[in-house]
Prior knowledge:
Layout: H1 4-9, E1 17-20, E2 24-28, E3 36-42, H2 54-75, E4 81-83, E5 99-103
Antiparallel strand pairs: 1-2, 2-3, 3-5, 4-5
The chain binds adenosine monophosphate and zinc ion (ZN).
Amino acid sequence: MDCIFCKIIAGEIPAKVVLRDDDVVAIEDVNPQAPTHLLVMPVRHVSNIDEMSPGTDGALMAKLIATAARLGREHGRDGYRLVINTGPDGGQTVDHTHVHVLAGRHLTWPPG
Ligand code: AMP
Ligand code: ZN
């Protein structure tokens, strides 16, 4: 499978890994949009959250969000933002589910 995040997880492409366990991996985004910009993803390839359901993937979904929130708390000053771009209109460019963690500056709203 030609998935850049699977290749990172397999160690075939270098990345700055900030956290890793059996279920989730967090890396630094190569094109950071904030002083802290991390990507939290499942170890198992799942294209996007539309491919996940609470019944079968509930624990993994919870762990992705909880891990991203913890990293946001740890790296943020006074808050942080979690983003899950999904599908072409959602701005998803890598088809391996990931939660963006943005922190370290005041983030404006609405996004582009
Ligand atoms: P999205 O557009 O929501 O699918 O987010 C994909 C993110 O992956 C973008 O913020 C990219 O900067 C980031 N990205 C793409 N390739 C790499 C890579 N090799 N290492 C780290 N981050 C990457
Ligand atoms: Zn993948």
